[in-house]
Each structure stands twice: as C-alpha cells, then as structure tokens.
C-alpha cells in the first residue's frame, strides 16, 4: 500500500511520465513495465489484504458470538481485530483507487504510441501487444477489484450488522445489569428478612426450650400429684368401702335415712308417681272413655296399677334371697333343670351385710332391668298407644318402689271417712269417700306420706261406692274444669302453637291425621270416580284445586281481625241494630281484653266441629253429582276449617318448588330430583313452622 502512495506522489509531481521518458522509447517501455509491475504488486497486496480479512472474519464472528453468550465479557483482542479489519479495508480501498488511476492513465500513453507508429512500426507492434496485454491485465485487475469491492461492501454491511447487534447486546446488558442490581437489592432484603426471621425463630426456639423445660417440670409435678391423688383415692376408696358398709348397716331396713346420691330414692319415685297420674293416666283415661264409653275407666286404671304393684312386690321379695343364694351355690345348668319343689336350699346363709349389698346393687340396677320387667308384666294385645304408655310407666314406678328397702307402700284402701291428710279431692268434696281414684304413696307400710292419693268425696256415708261416669270430670270433661285453670292454660297457649292441649281432640296433630286420612280415603274414591266419569280430565289437578280453593276460603272466613271485630260488634251493638249495619262500618280497633280474646279463640276452636255443617253447606257446590266427590268436598271443608281456627292457623304448602324436597314431600308414582306437579300439600304447624304431615308430588 505504501508503493501506491509513492506512485501517487510521483504522478502528482511529474504529471504522469517525465518528458525525457516520452522522448525515448526504451524509457517509455521501461516505465510501462514498471507500471504493470506496480499493478501486479498492488493486486497482490490487495489479494493478501483480502486473505487477511478472510482469516480475521471468523475470529471476529467467534468473538462476537462469545460476547453474545456472555454480556459481561469485554475483549481487548476483539478491539484490536476490529481496528486491523478497518485498516485493511481502508488499504484495499486505496489500492483500488490507485489501480483505477493507473488504468485511466494508460489511455494517453496508448494514443502517443499510435502517433509514433509511423516512425517505429516495430515499436507499434510491440506496444500493441503490450497494450493488449495491459488491457487484459486491466480487465483481470478490474474483475478482481470489483470482486474485492463487493466483498469489502459485504464485510462493511456485516460490520454494520455486528455494530447493531453489539448495540442491542449492550442495551440488553444494561437491562440485565439493572435486573442484577434489582435482584441484588431483593436478595439483600431477603437475606435481611431471613436473618431477622432466623433471629426470631431462634428466640422462639429458645422460648420453646424454656417452655419445654417448664413442661417437663410440670409433668414431673403432675406425675407426683397424680401419684399423690392415686394414693389419696385408694385411701378414700378404702374409707368409702368402710363407709358403705357402715352406711348399709345403718340403712338396712331403715328407710328414714336416704342416700341423696340415689336418683331413684323414694322422694324421686313419689315425683314419678305424681307425673304418672298427671300425664299417662289422663291420656289413657281419655282414650278409654272414647273407645269404651260404657266401662268404669277410673276403676280399670286403678286396678291396673294395683295388679302391677302386687306383682312387682311379689317378684321383688318372694324367695328373693333364696333365689340369689341358689344362683350362687349351684351351676346355671343344674339350676335351670331343677324344679322349684326340688330346690335344695332350706336356710338362708347370706350374712346381713351381704344381703344389704345385694339390695343396694339391685336398686342401682333397677332402671336398667326395667325393659325386662315391662316385657314380663305388660300385655301384648294393645289397641291404644296411650294405654301401653300407662302400663309401661306403672311398671316403672311400681318396680322402683318395690326394690326399696323396705318396699314403698301404695295405699289402695282410703277407708270410709275422707282423710284429707292422705287424699285429695277428685271432682267432688265431702266427708266420706265415694270411690278411690289414685292411691296414696307412703315411704313404707305405716310410714310417712310421700304423695297424696286422689279420691271422690261425697256427703253421704255409703261406704266406698263404685265410681259413676256421670260424675266424671277431669278425665275428664274440659267443660267441668275450674275456670281459672282454663284461663291460665289459655294464656300459656295464646299464639304459641308449640304448646298443645292434650285434651283437645282437634289439636294440630289430630288435624294432621285427619288430613292424611282424607288423602288416603276420600281423595282416592273421588279420583276413581272422576277418572271413570271424565276420562280426559286432569283429575289430580282438579282435586288439588278443590282443596286449595276451600282452604283459601276457610282462611279468609276465619281471619282473626275480621272475626274479633265481628264478635266485638256483636257484644257492643244490639242484635236489631247489628242486622242493619254493614261490616265495613264496624270498629277497626279491638278493645276486648286479652284474656277475653283468648277465651273467644278457645271457644271457637271448641265449637268448630259443631258448626262444620254450616261451613260445608256454604262451601259445597250445589251441582255435585257424585257421592264420592261430595264426600271429598265435605272432608276438605272439615280439615281446612279446623286448621284455619287454630292459633295461629295451620299452613298448607301448595308450592312444591322446582327441586324435590324429600323432607316435605313423598313420591306419587315416579321419583326424581325435580318436581313435575303437586298432588297433595304439606301441612305445617304454622307458616314457616314445623312439619306436621308430608305432601305428595310427582318427581321427574
């Protein structure tokens, strides 16, 4: 490249060839050869530069790739390669320019040779050949030049791309460095938090270790305390056993000393007996009086109690210790095969202390053995749940009373004169006893009284007469009860449907039973009748609509506000005036006292069955041509009216919803999670109240 530069300086200084060289052909030929040699030299230098660039290029690519893979890497050698690459490119460009200038300079020399060809023909031929050769060399050099120039341009373009990638990588490197700084900051924060948490956990661990040590000490103290308590319990147990033995000796056949820890001690049994008379006796009385109106119910019930009591006393004490001793002395197989007449035991050898412990154990186990005693004493052929409950409760009370030591005494002999210290009045007072209703309970025979009995008084001494049903009350006819009791009972039940009057034959549970019977009987008959007489009719919907319409009318007719205003108006106004007065001018305010209102509600419920025929004649259509359908109408009116006069009124749920609720409805003819149609409504104690009877719906 330095030769090219020197040639350019000589050319500038002499303006091409010197004048002397133009005059002499030999000098001109020499100079031409020299120029050709320069061309070759320059071409060789250019070719060497190209080869050098080809060697440097892969190294640059490798370094660039390395730089791409590691953004933090910077190489000084790569910088030197880039500088060498730029220098070689500049030298190649200078050599190309020099070749171009030399080629352009050949044209004047060729013209000069042609002018001198007339004088030197042999030189012309020589120059022509040299010129031709120079042109060929020029073409070759130009081709090489163009190729090298293209290569230089490609390398230049590649260098620009590398510069762009380098800038992009530098930008990414900057972003990565920023990310690294952020991560370093975050790492520092995490490390700080870790150290802080570690310190806290170390502190907590230290505290836990301290707490563990405390717990170990507490456990040791607890163990010592438990051992101490165990030793104390063992001592107390020994003392208790001693005390039990002493207590048993004291209580042996001494009922005046009660064990307050015994839940079935005599005073508690007396409470059970009073509850038996107040509850199960009353229910059984009502049931028997309805189902057997011609029998003496009081005498039957007291005889049941008397027979059970006698059997319990006999089972509890007849040959009791002989039986226990036999069970102790003989194996079970032999004891089962022996007949009572061949029983070998003749003398009771059990000690008094042993007998007392046996009696105490029997009292303790008496509630557990009650089902067995009840199975043995209660008859199987009952047609009444109330009577079965009365039997079972009589067995319970009599058995618990019979196993006391000594057994408690039920006084079934009230005598002729009415002893008010032993008996209460039943429905009539008098100085003499007409008949016994309920026995008095004593701690033992001739012992202190625990609960009074009940007897019917009379003013004439007729001995103990047979109970007559015409004097029946509290079994009892509600109309003959004291008014104060009825008023108090009404106050308790006022708008409180959860408290039921068990003497009310039309209480909510009974109405629910009537509604179930209506669906099972009258609904079925009406369904069959309509299905035969009207084949295309939707019978289920028709019967449901009848019930729904009647229920809506009954609820409207019995609406409390309208009803009580009507009653108040009837009280306030004379009948003659009231007939001429329209309901819309009655007083909108209710001034009746609460007690009186409640008595009115109760009277309406009581009289509801007696006005049913009037309600039925009002709601029953005149054009019903089927006895089954007429019976269905009448029974629907009965159930709906009795439900409507309750306080609050019973609620019939005619909305089954979309999803089948098995807690409210039963399946009709198909099951499914969804409701296709409603068949029969559910009955509730009141709106959103407890369920009394399920409805019926078709599932799908």
From TrEMBL:
Its main location: cytoplasm. GO terms for biological process: mitochondrial protein catabolic process; mitophagy by internal vacuole formation. Pfam families: MIEAP. One of its GO terms (molecular function) is lipid binding. Residues 265-455, 507-697 form the Mitochondria-eating protein C-terminal domain. GO terms for cellular component: mitochondrial matrix; mitochondrial outer membrane. It is found in: Cytoplasm; Mitochondrion matrix; Mitochondrion outer membrane. It comes from the Eukaryota. Keywords: Coiled coil, Cytoplasm, Lipid-binding, Membrane, Mitochondrion, Mitochondrion outer membrane. Signal peptide: none annotated. InterPro entries: MIEAP (IPR026169), MIEAP_C (IPR031981). Residues 1-25 are annotated as: Disordered. Residues 152-235 form a coiled coil. Belongs to the MIEAP family. PANTHER family: MITOCHONDRIA-EATING PROTEIN, MITOCHONDRIA-EATING PROTEIN-RELATED. This is Mitochondria-eating protein.
């Amino acid at each position: 490249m330095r030769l090219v530069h020197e040639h350019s300086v000589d050319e500038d200084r002499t303006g091409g060839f010197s004048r002397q060289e133009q005059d002499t052909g030999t000098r001109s030929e020499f100079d031409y050869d020299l120029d050709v040699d320069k061309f070759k030299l320059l071409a060789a230098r250019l070719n060497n530069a190209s080869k050098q660039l080809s060697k440097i290029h892969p190294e640059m690519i490798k370094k660039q790739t390395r730089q791409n893979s590691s953004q933090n890497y910077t190489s000084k050698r790569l910088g030197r390669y880039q500088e060498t690459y730029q220098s070689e490119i500049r030298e190649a460009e200078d050599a190309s320019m020099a070749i171009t200038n030399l080629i352009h300079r050949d044209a004047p020399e060729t013209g000069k040779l042609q002018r001198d060809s007339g004088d030197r023909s042999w030189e012309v031929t020589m120059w022509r050949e040299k010129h031709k050769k120079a042109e060929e060399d020029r073409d070759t050099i130009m081709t090489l030049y163009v190729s090298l120039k293209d290569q230089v341009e490609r390398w230049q373009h590649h260098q620009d791309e590398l510069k762009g990638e380098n800038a992009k990588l530098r930008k990414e490197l900057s972003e990565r460095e920023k990310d690294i700084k952020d991560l370093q900051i975050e790492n520092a924060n995490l490390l700080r938090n870790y150290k802080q948490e570690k310190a806290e956990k170390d502190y907590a661990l230290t505290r836990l270790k301290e707490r563990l040590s405390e717990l170990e000490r507490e456990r040791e103290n607890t163990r010592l305390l438990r051992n101490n308590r165990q030793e104390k319990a063992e001592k107390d147990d020994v003392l208790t056993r001693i005390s039990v033995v002493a207590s048993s000796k004291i209580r042996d056949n001494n009922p005046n000393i009660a064990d307050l820890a015994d839940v079935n001690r005599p005073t508690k049994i007396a409470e059970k007996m009073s509850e038996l008379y107040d509850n199960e006796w009353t229910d059984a009385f009502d049931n028997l009086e309805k189902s057997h109106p011609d029998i003496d119910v009081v005498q039957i019930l007291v005889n049941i109690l008397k027979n059970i009591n006698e059997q319990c006393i006999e089972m509890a004490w007849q040959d009791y210790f002989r039986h226990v001793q036999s069970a102790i002395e003989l194996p079970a197989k032999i004891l089962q095969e022996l007949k009572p007449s061949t029983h070998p035991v003749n003398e009771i050898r059990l000690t008094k202390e042993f007998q007392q412990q046996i009696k105490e154990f029997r009292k303790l186990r008496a509630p557990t053995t009650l089902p067995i005693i009840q199975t043995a004493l209660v008859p199987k052929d009952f047609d009444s749940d109330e009577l079965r409950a009365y039997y079972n409760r009589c067995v319970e009370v009599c058995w618990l009373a019979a196993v006391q030591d000594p057994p408690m005494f039920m006084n079934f002999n009230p005598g002729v004169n009415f002893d008010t210290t032993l008996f209460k009045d039943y429905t009539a007072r008098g100085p003499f006893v007409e008949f016994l209703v309920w026995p008095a309970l004593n701690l033992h025979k001739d012992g202190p009284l625990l609960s009074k009995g009940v007897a019917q008084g009379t003013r004439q001494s007729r001995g103990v007469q047979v109970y007559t049903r015409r004097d029946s009350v509290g079994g009892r006819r509600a109309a003959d009860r004291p008014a104060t009791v009825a008023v108090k009972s009404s106050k308790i039940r006022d708008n409180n449907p959860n408290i039921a009057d068990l003497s009310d034959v039309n209480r909510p549970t009974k109405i629910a039973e009537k509604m179930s019977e209506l669906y099972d009987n009258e609904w079925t008959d009406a369904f069959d009748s309509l299905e035969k007489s009207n084949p295309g009719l939707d019978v289920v919907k028709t019967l449901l609509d009848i019930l729904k319409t009647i229920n809506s009318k009954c609820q409207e007719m019995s609406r409390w506000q309208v009803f009580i205003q009507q009653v108040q108006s009837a009280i306030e106004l004379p009948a003659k005036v009231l007939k001429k007065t329209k309901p819309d001018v009655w007083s909108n305010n209710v001034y009746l006292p609460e007690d009186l209102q409640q008595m009115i509600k109760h009277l309406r419920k009581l009289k509801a069955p007696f006005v049913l025929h009037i309600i039925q004649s009002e709601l029953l259509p005149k054009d019903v041509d089927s006895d089954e359908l007429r019976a269905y109408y009448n029974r629907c009116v009965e159930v709906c009216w009795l439900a409507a006069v309750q306080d609050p009124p019973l609620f019939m749920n005619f909305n089954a919803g979309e999803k089948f609720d098995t807690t409210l409805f039963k399946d009709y003819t198909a099951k499914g999670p969804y409701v296709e149609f409603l068949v029969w409504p559910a009955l509730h104690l009141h709106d959103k109240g407890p369920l009394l009877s399920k409805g019926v719906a078709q599932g799908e």
